[in-house]
Design goal:
Helix content: 25-40%
Number of helices: 24
Largest sheet: 6 strands, parallel
Number of strands: 18
Strand order of the largest sheet: 2-1-3-4-6-5
Distance between the termini: 76 Å
Strand content: 15-25%
Shape: globular
Structural class: alpha/beta
Radius of gyration: 25 Å
Length: about 575
């Protein structure tokens, strides 16, 4: 029996280890979807079709699966609007380094270029958010394009897009299927000369600070060994949190807009800063000090701050080569001062409203996040919405070395947490997956609750409902602007979730948080806990500039003039607990 190109495409995905495709069916996708149906589903060794409610969510789900597993994940969109909806999630996947293949089906091939119904040019549109994007025109060309897409996505850790007209997918194959054997990843070892220069700089410095990112994955013990030998505090980025914060006696927290602890001051006071596997984008939080940077991507080195000591290599082999060349330092004064400062900041600022907060109404979001951390499984996967949910999870969710925390950390999209959780739960059906959603983000892709409910996924959604876009509100205030246009309609999300089959509860009393979380986590199926939190609780960065203070004061005066003193006083009181303390 003749084989259709659609079947060949699906076979190539199967050989690459793909077990599901996230998307919405449509006419130009029908040959592919039918080929997926004929595989019998993942339980029979085939591929599942995961029907989402918006293609953007499908791309986010694929991004999460790829980030957490390191393996190729796939999403699909039909011609025109269908695949256009993928673009935001694909930007997130691409910037996160997630190996994702996106199938953008196309209008009938003979109509391309004629302004046909729903015509777009996906092979052009996705260029900026992909490492590979190609249009399939013939059956001879197709299998090589698909193989190249798979190789690019996995090898370059990014998005590959295959644009396939529906009529071409329905043709019979004319070319053999390439053998797509897996290629083992190699470790990148730096040159001896660059390691020697770094060792000399470390040995001659008296105060060395380490700032670690996601590139330290798999090198936890070596980073700790380096810090122990040179008496260095270790700060980290949000993406580095999972890989370096746990079992780390030298941890001094995060810097940046979402930061906490003594990381900002620790790296400011150093005479040598070592950037380990991080492309931290906020140069205003990086000090003007002597800096070394270790990264496997040469193009990233020095693009955020001046780097005097560049080292091209993976973190693990670099540190293994570096450690024997390092002289152990005897003076631990810098490290001890930074750790004491970190302890003081954590106990007085970050921990201020996680204690004695069980009677405070409205609920302090810090307290809600702290209780969530205590109740969740030790190997839970957390997904966090962009905004204040990022702040609270960064500060209060402990990675433990067994948990994972992901979000749209480089693309910064709203509404990522729930679709990310869908992909995480599909990839790890036996693990607890918790979507930490803001009411603004959840309402943007609210339909994905139906995806979770209809498939009975045991995703646990924790909604921080403060009826405002709090991060945007903070940005306005520090810029000297009164908050405007940031209100979110007061909505009972627990009632909505309950109506579509979730176990759902709304919490207004902080004393009920722990028991409500536990009941949701014990439920065998989808569950949602809506926590009504203080709308005036904002986050103050650990490093506050005079301009930010002036902007906040100016904004408060405008709030008083426009809306009365009561609201301004309430906002100030709510945020006194989060101000950095010395």
């Amino acid at each position: 029996m003749a084989k259709k190109l659609a079947d060949q495409f699906v076979e190539q995905l199967q050989s690459a280890g793909v077990r599901r495709i996230y998307g919405i069916v449509g006419d130009s996708l029908n040959p592919i979807v039918d080929a997926v149906r004929r595989t019998g589903g993942a339980t029979r060794g085939g591929i599942d079709w995961i029907h989402v409610r918006h293609e953007e969510a499908g791309a986010f789900a694929a991004a999460a699966e790829a980030q957490l597993t390191g393996r190729l994940a796939v999403c699909a969109g039909s011609c025109g609007p269908g695949n256009l909806h993928l673009i935001n999630g694909l930007y997130d996947a691409h910037r996160s380094g997630a190996p994702v293949l996106a199938l953008a089906s196309h209008i009938p091939s003979r109509h391309i270029g004629s302004g046909y119904f729903q015509e777009t040019h996906p092979d052009r549109l996705f260029t900026e958010c992909s490492v590979y994007s190609e249009l399939v025109s013939t059956t001879d060309q197709a299998p090589r394009v698909v193989q190249a897409a798979i190789r690019h996505a996995v090898g370059l850790r990014g998005v590959a897009v295959v644009t396939l007209p529906g009529d071409v997918a329905d043709l019979e194959t004319t070319a053999p299927t390439p053998d797509c054997r897996p290629v083992e990843s190699a470790s990148l070892t730096p040159t001896a000369a660059s390691v020697q220069r770094l060792a000399e700089a470390v040995n001659e410095s008296t105060k060395v600070a380490i700032f670690a990112g996601a590139g330290t994955e798999g090198a936890h013990d070596e980073v700790i060994a380096l810090a122990a030998k040179i008496k260095s505090p270790i700060g980290h980025s949000l993406r580095g949190k999972d890989f370096i914060q746990y079992d780390n006696p030298y941890d001094v927290g995060m810097t940046g807009l979402l930061g906490y602890g003594a990381a900002a001051e620790g790296i400011e006071d150093a005479d040598l800063l070592i950037l380990l596997g991080t492309d931290f984008p906020y140069d205003q939080f990086l000090p003007d000090t002597r800096t070394a940077q270790i990264d496997r991507a040469r193009e990233r080195i020095g693009r955020r701050t001046h780097v005097e000591l560049p080292v091209h290599g993976d973190v693990l082999p670099t540190l293994r080569a570096l450690l024997p060349l390092i002289e152990e330092k005897s003076d631990a004064g810098f490290l001890e001062r930074t750790l004491k400062k970190h302890d003081r900041l954590m106990n007085k600022a970050v921990g201020a409203y996680t204690r004695k907060a069980d009677k405070s109404v409205p609920i302090h979001p810090e307290y809600a996040a702290s209780v969530l951390d205590e109740v969740a499984d030790d190997d839970a996967i957390f997904t966090a919405d962009t905004g204040m949910c990022n702040v609270w999870t960064a500060r209060y969710i402990r990675p433990l070395g067994t948990r994972r925390l992901i979000g749209s950390y480089l693309h910064g999209s709203m509404a990522n947490a729930l679709p990310h959780a869908i992909g995480a739960q599909q990839a790890f059906p036996g693990r607890q997956v918790v979507s930490v959603s803001g009411d603004g983000g959840l309402s943007m892709l609210l339909g994905e609750l139906i995806t979770v409910g209809s498939q009975g996924m045991p995703v646990k959604v924790v909604v921080f409902n403060n009826s405002t876009l709090a991060m945007v509100k903070l940005e306005m205030l520090v810029d000297g602007l009164p908050d405007f246009g940031v209100d979110v309609p007061d909505t009972n999300y627990a009632a909505i979730a309950s109506a579509i089959g979730f176990h759902a509860e709304r919490v207004t009393d902080p004393r009920e948080l722990a028991s409500t979380y536990r009941a949701a986590f014990d439920h065998d199926g989808p569950a949602l806990v809506e926590v009504v939190t203080d709308p005036n609780a904002l986050s103050i960065p650990p490093k506050v500039t005079g301009e930010q203070v002036f902007g906040f004061a100016t904004a408060m005066s405008k709030v008083v003039l426009n809306r009365g003193a009561g609201e301004a006083v309430s906002m100030i009181r709510s945020n006194m607990r989060n101000r950095p303390r010395r």
